[in-house]
């Protein structure tokens, strides 16, 4: 029997708050708390994969300092808009 959607979201939220660098905790933690449940299944799958990436790379992608891999572009746009809204 596989992981339920609620268990998966709980795991992803925990992983979002417990990153390797504090900057990513502060970006992904609040995002996961408020936005994760609104993502569709495909976006959640991409988010899950993205959490396996190196935090320093993720930070560069989210801030737009370095071009992100194409598979993450849509989701990173959503995260960046959430994290850096004024």
UniProtKB/TrEMBL annotation:
Signal peptide: none annotated. SUPFAM superfamilies: YgfY-like. InterPro entries: SDH (IPR005631), SDH_sf (IPR036714). It holds the Pfam family Sdh5. Keywords: Chaperone. One of its GO terms (biological process) is tricarboxylic acid cycle. Transmembrane segments: none annotated. Belongs to the SdhE FAD assembly factor family. This is FAD assembly factor SdhE.
């Amino acid at each position: 029997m596989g992981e339920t959607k609620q268990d998966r979201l709980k795991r992803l939220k925990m992983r979002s708050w417990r990153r390797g660098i504090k900057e990513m905790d502060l970006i992904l933690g609040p995002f996961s708390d408020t936005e994760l449940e609104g993502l569709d299944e495909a976006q959640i799958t991409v988010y899950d994969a993205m959490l396996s990436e190196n935090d320093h790379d993720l930070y560069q992608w989210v801030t737009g300092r370095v071009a992100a891999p194409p598979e993450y572009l849509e989701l990173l746009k959503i995260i960046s808009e959430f994290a850096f809204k004024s």
